[in-house]
Design goal:
The complex is a heterodimer of chains A (287) and B (141).
Chain A: H1 2-41, H2 43-59, E1 76-82, H3 92-109, E2 113-119, H4 121-128, E3 133-138, H5 147-162, E4 168-176, E5 182-190, E6 207-209, H6 212-286
Parallel strand pairs in A: 1-2, 1-4, 2-3
Antiparallel strand pairs in A: 4-5
Chain B: E1 5-11, E2 15-21, E3 23-28, E4 31-35, E5 42-54, E6 60-73, E7 76-81, H1 88-107, H2 115-140
Classes of the chains: A alpha/beta (287), B alpha+beta (141).
Chain lengths: 287, 141
Amino acid sequence: MAGAREIRSKIKSVQSTRKVTSALEMVSASKIKKAQDKMLSARPYARTIRQIAGHLAHANPEYKHPFMLKRDPAKRVGYIIISTDRGLCGGLNTNEFKKAVSHMRDWQARGADIDVVAIGTKAGVFFKATDVNLLGNVSGLGDNPELSDIIGVVKIMLDRYRDGTLDRLYLVYNDFINTMVQKPVIDQLLPLVPVEDENIRDQWDYIYEPEPEVVLDHVLIRYIESLVYQGVLENLASEHAARMVAMKSASDNAKELIKELQLVYNKARQAAITQEISEIVSGAAAV
Amino acid sequence: MASTIQCKIVSAEREIFSGEVSMLIASGIMGELGIAPRHAPLMTLLKPGEVRIQFPDNSEEDYYVSGGILEVQPYLISVLADTAIRAEDIDEAAAIKAKEEAERLLATKDKKYELAKVEAELAKALAQLQALARLKKKLKR
């Protein structure tokens, strides 16, 4: 019966692993909805500020904000990389980093240096081990990230762009498409891609208080922050979705493993009983 | 019957208010502003303070904003509110904190890998993941 006991303890351990993975699955399933709601509730701000930025750029064609100037060739390229804080979410971070790294390699091949700020523990730990400059890191945003959490890292990059150190700025995050599909994307933040909005009405212009330049500067910073914030929310929803799927497949695997182990256990038990009976019978026959 | 204008107050995190109002009073960076329907198109920065909205039935509601942008269009007032208190030195402090955290991370660094090597490692990790998925499918059959 020794073999049977070993198998039993193995079954027990797989069962407790399965409990953990299915609990994680359920937690993530319930959090997805909340993350999605947050994503949606941040949209009105992003949409409005996008319109305003577009309108302002349109209304002041003669004034060029530093964020709109394109500097070629780019000698230094910045990335804001949004990742998760925790693991156990399948290939979510790995896929994202791979895409970012190959993008960076393209720039390196053209002789550019790479600056990185990381949002989330995973990105920080990953990029500190590489030969890029890790300038800033923020982690522990949790399930309710707020705009104030990301102001610092965004400011680092914006300041560097403004003083001419950086020539490009990209945002990397996982785009939440649906529960099954999350796609890593790289968006260009700076120089600003001109907003083409067919709704821009040329008939009237605003009265600005104070000057348009000051307002524009303020609006553009808020605009970029809101893009990064939106990225954080997308990435959060992606994280929960990816974790749910990964944990679901882990639970399924555990279930199958338990089934197989149970079969082996039953066979071992059966063999032991048969052997015992045959021993008794042969013993009785000998008497 | 007083006329009304559509008004919405949004912050980066959520929509705070949306509805018809008869007047909006806010503290702009150049001074107090009262926006009634048919105000000229205006865009201004807001100081930290109250945004008061009055409804046609003379009731009022107050919201506190820590700065933001006020935009007046012919048929719409939008307030893009900052929820966090923003000031140059506070932003600077946040930036310094982020830098320090990066430095703390870097202090424990062992080796600098080249991106090429890291990319190869990542490709390997992904291939392993895919192989596992394939193996699982095969076992199921």
